[in-house]
Amino acid sequence: MIILKNIPGAADALARHLRSRLRNNPVFLCIGSDRVTGDCLGPLCGHLLKTRYNAPAFVYGGLDCPVNALNVRETAEFIALRHRGSPLVVIDSSVGAEKEIGCIRLFDGPVKPGSADGKKLGAVGDIGITATVAAQKSNLCAVRLSVVYSLAETVSAAISNALTPTHNIIASLY
C-alpha cells in the first residue's frame, strides 16, 4: 500500500506508483454520492477525468451519473461483462483518524464501498484509490468541499498522468 499526503508533488508520486500497476486498458469506477460532500470524491474524480483530462479510458461514475450504494453492484457486474480482462480501478472516499485526513491510498485489491456507513455492499475492483476526507464517526455532510475537491484534483491528475506518460515528457520540452 502506498500512502501519500495531499501536498505539492503528490499527483506525480501517485502517477508513478499507479503507472506500474496499470495494464490492459484499465477501467475506472468512481464511487460516491454527489449529495453528500464527504462522499463526492469518486463523482468529482470521474467528472474531472471525463471533462478536464479527457482520459483515454472508460470511466464510470461522475457528477452527471454517480455510482453509489444503489447501483454499485449492477455497475460492477456490467463492467465485468463489458471489459473482460481489464483491471478495474476503484476510487472512493474513506474515513479514518483525524491525522489521516488528506491522505491518499493506492493499493492492490478491492475497495469495500459503504463500509464507513456500515453498509455491506461487497468488495469491488482490482486496484483501489481511496482518500480520507473525514475522521471516524464524523458527519460526512459536514466535510468541507475544498478538502474533497483538492483530493479529487490530485487523484484525477495522477490518473491522467499515469495514462499518458508521454504528455509530461513532451510538455517539459517547451
Shape descriptor: globular
User: For the report, how would you describe the main beta sheet?
Assistant: 6 strands, mixed
Strand tally, please? 6
How do the helices and strands follow one another from N- to C-terminus? EHEHEHEEEHH
Distance from N terminus to C terminus (CA atoms, Å) equals 35 Å
Overall pLDDT, averaged? 90
Beta-strand portion reads 15-25%
Low-confidence stretches: 167-174
Decide which structural class fits the backbone: alpha/beta
Helix coverage percent of residues? 25-40%
Radius of gyration using CA atoms only: 15 Å
Strand order of the largest sheet: 1-5-6-4-2-3
Number of helices: 5
Describe the structure.
With 174 residues, the protein is α/β, with parallel strands linked by helices. The chain contains 5 helices and 6 strands. A 6-stranded mixed sheet has the order 1-5-6-4-2-3, sandwiched between helices. The radius of gyration is 15 Å and the shape is globular. Residues 167-174 have low confidence and may be disordered.
Could you write a compact summary of the structure shown?
This protein has helices at 10-19, 41-51, 72-82, 145-163, 165-173, and strands at residues 2-5, 27-30, 58-60, 88-96, 103-108, 127-135. The protein is built from 5 helices and 6 strands; from the N terminus they run βαβαβαβββαα.
Primary descriptors:
alpha/beta
Topology summary:
Layout: E1 2-5, H1 10-19, E2 27-30, H2 41-51, E3 58-60, H3 72-82, E4 88-96, E5 103-108, E6 127-135, H4 145-163, H5 165-173
Parallel strand pairs: 2-3, 2-4, 4-6
Antiparallel strand pairs: 1-5, 5-6
Helix pairs in contact: 1-4, 2-4, 4-5
